[in-house]
Amino acid sequence: MRLFHWTRAKSVFMPELDAEHRSLYEMGENLHQGWRAGAPPEAMLPPLRALLAAAEEHFAHEERLMRAAHYPLLNWHKRQHETARNASRPLVARLEAGDRQAVRELLVFLSGWMKDHLAVADRMMAAALRAFARVSAA
Fold first, then answer.
1. Could you tell me the pTM of the whole model?
2. How many domains are contained in the chain?
């Protein structure tokens, strides 16, 4: 079973954000496949760190766009990003200590979090950003 499967149904209809989301999904699925293949904890740390670094870059990108558009729900959206960070930290620490199961738990969490976050928070944000762009262009 794939935990991370990108489909057009997950699109927020902003090409650059959709590309970033798709990349995060691919990184997550690659890590999941490594876990399923039995990779040891030390082999999973680099791709996990890369996934989390890419997520941080993506969060920062979204937050810059929201600030520039004076998005009224910026703080709410940022708190959702912080939820993902806070849930990830102890699981990463467990993996660093050699707990291979922590990867599975983190991937299950991130898969569900991303699905929900994209479906609600990111779609709301993207709609507001598209509206802001239309008004700014007029």
1. 0.95
2. 1
